Amino acid sequence: MSKYRIAWLPGDGIGQEVSDAARLVLDAAGFEAEYLAGDIGWEFWCKEGDPLPPRTLELLRTTHCAFFGAITSKPVADAKRELAPELQYRGLTYRSPIVRMRQLLDLYVCLRPCRAWRGNPLNYREDIDLVVFRENTEGMYIGVEFPKVPESFYAEPAIERLPADAAISIRSVTRKASRRIVEAAFQYAVKHRRRRVTAVHKANVLRATCGVFLEAAQEVAARYPQIQFDTANVDAMGMWLVKNPQNYDVIVTTNLFGDILSDLAAQLVGGMGFAYSGNIGDTYAVFEPTHGSAPKYAGLNKVNPLAGILAAKMMVEWLGEVQIARNIESAVAQLIERGKVRTYDMGGSAGTMDIAHGVAESLHCGTDDRLLSPVSRR
Question: Which residues are catalytic?
């Protein structure tokens, strides 16, 4: 019997292909697990009215963690139009299944490493090695929106100034959630010998919500005097990340800001083909490449699967199989540095599974710890 039970959620579009590539590498690395397929994504919204069916939630609750490929999300009008005819008038509303998993399972940390791999022709600079900690459960993504201002809201003087055609999205930021995401960032910094934590906010304008986050960050930082701590407004942070990304180490911020900044940082080290994340709670985690479903590439064996392979590496590491994770990382580093097998985004012509087989071949031939990132060697 396998030691681990893993919910396997390929999802939509290229999700199946990158999941297959990740599975091939996991097998080649000697990682043993029972993989339990789960239903998720646009297909299940269209035919069942729920992109995250209850049976899938139950699967998550009976496994150690999950690997997630990709999902398709579309605007409200498209979501309603593509529902099965018998579901059209039931008042169903599409909500992103990954956002729901984060909230229902309290996966409050979104951990996004952004590393410039040696030999990657897409690197903006060769010395980028930062991580983004994004609060995952609240902020602008709580899903409380109003296409028209409710009459009851007009009792608040500030609401009276809104135009009649205004829509509203609620932003919720709590001290509890702010403290624990900042605490997670500092604990990571200590464990991995990172020197600096930067808290990103917009408290000069969003005084209430960002004020809560900033105060919490300052409170937590005071308990870690050995770690350099600074703060930055999110607009300035976007500029500085482009100008001097090598200066940053650990960035921690709220949900929407983290979503934006982590994609910006990902582009500096090669784009979404290298962007992966862990959605991590106290007892459960979901690991994913952070790209979309790219339906135009589905089934073409074309896309770069390294983000999915690295997400699988992070999953294995979270489960405690540190040496297997190190071996996968080293094998990925060897493949990138040699430059013989590259997908179209890196200027090559290799297919998705060519990359997976290339990583597997490196695993079989032996890995080199000298190619690990400084963080992984610690």
Answer: 141, 202, 235, 259
